[in-house]
Amino acid sequence: MQNICNMPGRIISEAEGYEILKDAGINVPKFGFAKSEDEAVRAAGYTGYPIVIKISSPDISHKSDVGGVVTGIPDQESLIREYNSLLSRVSEKMPDAQVTGVLIAEQVSPGTELFAGGTIDPSFGRVLSFGTGGTLVELWKDISFRLFPLTPEKISGMIDETRASSVIGGFRGAPPLDREALLDMLGKLGDLFEKRDDIVSFDINPLILTESGVVAVDARFIIDDDVPEPKVEMPEKFCTSEAFLSPKSIAVAGASATPGKIGYFVFQNLLEFEGRLYPVNPKRSEILGVKAYDSVSELPEVPDWLVICVPAKAVPAVLEDAGKSGVRFAVIISAGFRESGEEGRLLEEEILNIARKYDLCFAGPNCLGIMIPGLRLNATFGPKLPQPGPVAFLSQSGAIISAITDSGLVADTGVSAVISLGNQADLKFIDYMRAMERDPQTKAVVLYIEELKNGRKFVESVKKIIKRLPVVAIKAGRSKKGKIAARSHTGSLAGSWEIYHEAFRESGIIPAMSLTEAFETGGLLASEGWPKGNRAVVVSSAGGFAVLSADYAEDYGICLIDLDDDMKEELDSFMPSGWSMKNPIDMIGDAGVERYAKTLDMLIRYQDRWDIAYVAAAPVTSIDPVRLAKETVVFSRQTDKMVVGCLIGGEGMAPGVKVLNDNHIPNFSELESAFRATGLALRAAEEIMSFENAGETK
Amino acid sequence: MQNICNMPGRIISEAEGYEILKDAGINVPKFGFAKSEDEAVRAAGYTGYPIVIKISSPDISHKSDVGGVVTGIPDQESLIREYNSLLSRVSEKMPDAQVTGVLIAEQVSPGTELFAGGTIDPSFGRVLSFGTGGTLVELWKDISFRLFPLTPEKISGMIDETRASSVIGGFRGAPPLDREALLDMLGKLGDLFEKRDDIVSFDINPLILTESGVVAVDARFIIDDDVPEPKVEMPEKFCTSEAFLSPKSIAVAGASATPGKIGYFVFQNLLEFEGRLYPVNPKRSEILGVKAYDSVSELPEVPDWLVICVPAKAVPAVLEDAGKSGVRFAVIISAGFRESGEEGRLLEEEILNIARKYDLCFAGPNCLGIMIPGLRLNATFGPKLPQPGPVAFLSQSGAIISAITDSGLVADTGVSAVISLGNQADLKFIDYMRAMERDPQTKAVVLYIEELKNGRKFVESVKKIIKRLPVVAIKAGRSKKGKIAARSHTGSLAGSWEIYHEAFRESGIIPAMSLTEAFETGGLLASEGWPKGNRAVVVSSAGGFAVLSADYAEDYGICLIDLDDDMKEELDSFMPSGWSMKNPIDMIGDAGVERYAKTLDMLIRYQDRWDIAYVAAAPVTSIDPVRLAKETVVFSRQTDKMVVGCLIGGEGMAPGVKVLNDNHIPNFSELESAFRATGLALRAAEEIMSFENAGETK
To answer: ipTM of the assembly?
Structure first.
């Protein structure tokens, strides 16, 4: 699973690997090591027949591929023959490989072949992997990951997540395998990997699991003797100023009256700001009609925010002045730092040191800026302010902020804050998210991530806020080419998508594949909160929507409940013959709003039986969309369960959709999106519940 | 894989199954059948040791689950012991099972375990399946399907599609297995299944494949002695009237002046029609200002279309009168036929017979009607006419037509025709599609399918038109609950989604999961035609879009080409330092339209090196969207390769998007959708190319 070409360190021999495992209390076959026929025979005397022999060479990672493994050798005569033919096969296929000897090992009885591995992710650190093993491991791709620190619950969960778990539990009447022994071995492997700083990665394939035990049969360790310095943990730098998300005064260093300049766009956008605004520019006495000041220290008050648009080289002096003056927060829009090369990197270190000195924290540098629509605060050099609303957007791409704030995606729901992260020299995703947690306006957060710094800390921090504040994230740079594109774009080294995905799962973050999906799901959660369970009902007068709903519910893991007899009877009392008599509740095409209202009324009385209700309709002559929307609002107010509008259409439906929007009820104009968003929310909610349970058992 | 509870027929014994296979020339183990210890010993004398014994009972489908299989019996003593303990185990676990005896079979040497099966799909008839076998078959779900009639190419393709094919080809240095023997066996199984009308389904699991041969080890056949009558092939009933999609005159039987009545809505909608319009209603002399006639036969001309909105019971008389008068095409909107029960079914048969008698064909009954926006023709009782355009929509759900015609999905691209299929008593999907093929307005078709009648014929017919006319289809009722919902909604029995999916693949139809996806992909193909290959370039000034593009390209199987040195040099001559130097071509955030224009100009000169170009931009200050759109139009006019606009935003981008729309260049406001739609088109295009190749080799 490891691309060894790009890894530091060296592969150690299998015999050394066995020794490491033995020392850690992990079961390995009896083995010996031979550099000659005689030594081979002697080693076999210790292990006993039948035996396996394997070539040992630092240059050969896939031994089977070069005929470097022979199994089932029954006796000494065969051993001598096979020993020699193995050596000649290998030297023929890989004449340049350095052969250190041959491993002689007890032949382990057959069992279920599993696999375990460890790797160090650049963002998240140590990761354990587990799955179906054997020679076809890369074919089946049945694998799960867990970030360190591990717990017995996490290890157990990683087994359950694989298809191998069915076999381990005793598939189709077969006896169950020794899960306890497997748990124990994975735990010991985790401890070993955590303790031994020099292990860069390892693969054990196969682990052979039987009804009564587990053996690590084939082990490959990569050791780096130059253990990298442990990363210096960044001091927890969180903008604690109460004014952070509600500034009353803003100064703009580098404000300009020259159209086309960044300092001009920023200042012009800020003219709308509801608080006090100070341009700082030593060359001008006023800018766009506002009195200008020579420096931050000369301002009539200490501004809550300082927005910096001066050229990179001038930033340290401005920041020093601001720090001395008592400024606590700055948005550094200026580019020309780490992203531009070595000189910029040093400049970035310099400004970080200045900030530390004065206990000042800052966004950026190299960012588009920050928006808080509720305060008419647009400290960016580009986009227009979107409508105020409950969703915060944190993005590592400025252009994506421009696209999103302009788009229909946030037009209905509205936005509480938009933050362009830039180089994240000081403030990082999690710092802003902590601030959002305290912000009464923000009910959900959407992240566009190219790279997380110190992902492990990120995960731990998110876990603490996720219940109050749902988070949806797009991780860009998932693919090989995408990762390269992200690197050239942000100068960062991103970890693998699988590990990010696991980090999101552990945190309770919802992984979205597109901006549309992210904002749809964020908007749903901002208005409805986490779903309380996965029991769903669908109400529709459109037969086609009923059919599609059932498909999408299955696709996205949402359980359409069976209607109980009492519910059916009530419905049947006012439905025309031919209604579906089941969930999805298809009320027939001639249904008017009255029939919807009666059905919703029934559902309120039985609201202990469901957790999510979809109200779906097409723009047909029998339905007045505004009246239907109003009934949906009444319905939603009577329950704290999740209510999802699916008034599907365009102009004809728009007046109804507006009523839902105004009443903070989410509406989807594509049925699949409604089910996808709720399904995504549900998967994360289940994860968060399991934390609760795990917490209780401790 | 078979849910035997719902199947007609009976399971035959494994010994009978072996006989059937042997007769078909398929390799099976040596075997015998025993009803006593003595017979078992005698049978083993014939097969030779080691042997396998298996319980034989029509009541036990999963023998291993009840301990009904013992393998590796080495000698007579063990046989006697195991024979008796097998019988007692089974009678303990399933005391009520009728045991007919014990199969004694040669133990087959180990090899790769595969699986093959056959089933009869209600829509598509006989289907062969193949995949990874063994006890974990249901865990791995590594399976492919092919519809009959089979060809050697199809069988070969179904092997290639599975992950098992990697093992068969010799995975990771292992010797390749006997693919020829496997092909031969699958061919023989296909022949057997085609010839034997009484075989309802079969499963062979495992097939054991080695380097030199294949054996069918475990066989289960379900036989139905009451062979169902072969379905009467519907005579090919295609509306050949030239007037079909360009009627000049329309009569409306049941036209009404009473608001709220269907005949009122339909007639009112038709008032816009550009041709001649005749209300037929014996009770009125005029309707909504138009002179009315007592009957069709009294009209001053034979109308090209007759739209029927009279109550179901009155339809036969109207149709008879129309047939006598020489009407060739009718749209029967009236409900109350097959969907309403037995009486309705008989009525439906009656109108079908009348139509046959007069060589008249009809749409419906029980449908919303038909729209042809280009003629201002709205023969429906609901929605408003959408804009004319190149995409035709054929739907089995009327409500979905209402939603779509109202929605933004067709607002930009426009629609050539909308057809509500209703009960499909006469005209079916393929009939309309053939008409669309001849329609110069229609460039792509979107289908909403709940059930296909005679799917095999559908597949054969679609293959003939798909190159000229791309088709995108949503199959609703994919899930178990969805299928049930569809059944109650349309009274039809739908086949399984896997089989539909395979039928779509074979036909070249693009499978869409949502209406949005379907119309986005249909719109793309209507303007750009089939892609010519999968080599793509992305041009963007937004770093985030470059990163996401690379991800989506990988997700959807689109190959982002490496830029050759000459291309890079040209770009480098005008790009600022820091541009990506690779594809996706990230031109840096400050790029204006000029830089886009130069890059597109370079791409035109190297247009032999790519097949798809994505032009992506966010609404940023440096870009004038109208100018960018105009440059994209110029670019697109110079190539017949696929050009995809990704001007992403809302109001800010709208003027640019309008320019693209007006010039028939597709635009996507979500990057993922652009890649998904092109990826879907590409998969189907590759399928269509492979038909061409297959054709050439014949």
So the answer is: 0.90
